[in-house]
Structures are given as C-alpha cells and as structure tokens.
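CORE FACILITY INTAKE
Project code: CF-77B
Contact: R.S. (postdoc)
Sample description: multi-component assembly, two entities in total
Requested service: structural model of the whole complex
Turnaround: standard
Below are the sequence entries exactly as provided by the requester. Do not edit them.
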Amino acid sequence: MGTLKPKVSKEQLLYANILNAGMLVGLAGLLVTFVLYATGILKPFIPLEKIPQYWVLSVHEYLEESRISAGWAWFGNLEFGDMLNFLPIAFLSLLTIVCYLSILPELAKNKDRAYMVICILEVLVLLVAASGILGTGGH
Amino acid sequence: MQDNKISHKVLFLTLAICLIFVLAAPYLFASNTGNSSEAGIQSNWWFYPLILLVLSFLLGVFAVLAGVGGGVLYVPIVSGFLPFHLDFVRGAGLIVALAGALAAGPGLLKAGMANLRLAIPMALIASTCAIAGAMIGLALPTNLVQTLLGATILGIVILMLRAKKSVFPNVPKPDALSQTLKIMGVYHEPSLDKNIDWQIHRTPVGLGLFVIIGLMAGMFGLGAGWANVPVLNLVMGAPIKISVATSKFLLSITDTSAAWIYLNNGAVLPLMVVPSVVGIMLGSFIGVKILGFTKPSLIRILVIVVLAIAGGKAFLKGLGIG
C-alpha cells in the first residue's frame, strides 16, 4: 500500500478550480472569436490584408497610422472581429483577480491576516495595470 | 536499445529540419514569388500567422522536451527571424507564457506541486515590478531593448549550460519571514513513494531577486521560469519539483500584470497572438506525449544552440549590425 498523499489547502483547491474553469472558457473563447475574425464572418476594424503593413511598425507608429485607440477602446467596438478577440484575452488576464478575490473569505476564516493583505495588494496592483491609468498609447 | 538510439536521432533531425524549414520559409516564399518580402506578405495576410502557428507548435514541443518555458524561446526566435516588430512580439510572448501558465496552473495546484503560500508573496513583488518593466520596455528605443534582450538571452544560454539543481536542498533552519508567513509544505514524491516535508530560507533575498525577475519579464515579455526556478530552488531551498511547478504557476500572475500594460498600449495583435497560443499549446501537448521515449539532452542542446543564435542575432540587430 502506497503512502497517503498529503492534502492541499482549501484555498489552494478553490483557486485551482476557478482557474481551471476560467482558463477553459477563456481559451475556448479565444478560438471561437479568432475563427469569427479570420474567416471574415465578422468584419474586422482593420482589414486583414492591411495588418502585415502594421506589424512591422513600432506600436506607436501602428497606433498613429491605423488611427486605432489603445486602452479599453476595443470594448466599445465589439461588433468588429478583431476587437472581439480582445474579449477572451482580457478575460484570461482578469482571471487571476477573480481567483485572488475568491480565496479571501477562506483566508479571513483562518484569520490569515498577512495573506489577506498580500492578496488585496495583488488585486489592487492588477486592477491598476488593467485600468490603463498607467498610460496607454505606446512610446 | 539500438531502435531507441535511432528514434532519438530521427526525432532530433526531424525537429531540427522542421525548425530550419519554418524559419527559412519566409525567405523562400519571398524569392519564389519574386516579390520583396514585404510586398509578398501584404498580398497574403495569412502567411505569417500560419508560420507562427507551425513555429509555435515546434517551440511548444522543444519547450517541454528541453524543460524551458515557451516565452523564452518565442520572443528571441520570432523577433530574430520573422518580420514582426519587437513591441508586438513581446506582447504576444507574454500572452503565450500566460496561456501556458494558466493551462498548467490548476493541475499543478491540485497535485500539491505548485504551492500557493510560496507563490503569493513572490507574485506580489514580481507582478508589481513586471508592470514597471513593461512600461520601461515600451518607453525605451527599440534598438536598446533589442540589444538588452540579446544580452539577456545569451545570459540565459550560459545559465542553461551551467544549470545546477538541487532535488532536495538542505534547509537547516527556515528564516523568520518564511516562518511568519508559514511558507512550508509537504508533497508526495512518487519515485520514493514518500511524503517530503519542505521549508525555505533566505526569503528576503529571494524577494529581492524577484524584483529583478519581474522587471525583466515585463521588459522583454519572456516569461521568467528560467530565473524563477534557480531562485526558488537554489537560493530559497524549495525542492526542485516544488520550484518548477510553483514557478510555472507564478507566471500566470506575473505575466498577467505585464500583459495588461502591453494590451493597454496596443501592443497585442490577435492575428499574432491566437496562432501562437494555439501552436504552443498543441506543441506542449505533443511534447508531453513524446517526452517518455525521447532523450531530452539532445533536444536541450538544439534549444541552447538555437537560443544562442537568436540571442546573438538580437544583440547584433540592436547594435545595428545584424
């Protein structure tokens, strides 16, 4: 009979389950929105044949020449195939925040104040990064 | 045994030829169409995304077999050999590393190999610094970032050549900070059919090193497994399996913060990101399947050679020589 495997903590298991579900939804979304975009089912904001002219430029030149707005501007243009692709990318990038928030009650129950503070700080750091207040628009 | 040797050589040669072919394809394509490379790609928008899909697939296989992260291969190779601007390659590289970490994270956490208590404090430092790194990287002139990227990749090559690891590091006494934060654990080691207790030391030094790791991850879009693992294992004394798994999970947090900066600055192109993510994930899946009957040392040599060439190319390109 083998050695009994050690159990992982409740908060670790919770984090893993939420991450797993979110990751599957996000990756499936990435594939679906890309198919809608690349097959032309949804019209792109920037025509596909123009993209190769832009990807050789710096991000600053790209934003200037394509007249595209950076930051969260894509959220207002979800009817375009390329902009819709940012939805699953943003979802995957927001997943960590959801995971951190989900383990806070468990940490509070265990009176694990140090980790509660660290988790709240991490959420704030990620929210600041996501908000775009640290600057948008390239060089 | 003879068959095994042949299959190692066949696999090695197949992967090497595929990689050379994929990297040479843009040049072959340009000369066959009689167009300049740029004119050729403008009429065929799908060509480079297709190359990215195949290349990322190969990099995914290599990454698993050589025990490195996908991001560290992706950025220097794609920026060195394909026409994409470094800004977009770094943005895509971060999303590639993030997707890989998100996919691997749940399994590693559930198995108790990645440790949340070990990851959370390191992640706070690394992700904060990754934001700063991403902002610096997008603000600096491209040639300077390219030169620094090349130098970093060459440094990673040296690190890989001299790589040391400690399966069960000796940690005589945990430090005060790790005791306060209760960073310790127990995991099941199947090769010994034994539960291994572990603890860490030198936590403040480790946290200090994660400042540098975060900055570099954000600046170059590389992911940071190549640096996370030695710090967790050799400096802080976590067992190698815990270090590797926690490092992989840690990338899901570090790269998230840097990815937002690239995303908000417009440096993420779905036409590059999606084929790269799909390719590298499929490649990792196949890599895990063939890991059991290959000789990773051969692949590791190939990866080191390719990285050295890509690093050298990036370095020279940054200096305006390549």
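Facility notes:
- Strands of chain B lie at 184-189, 194-199.
- Chain B touches chain A through 72 residues (CB under 8 Å).
Invoice: internal transfer
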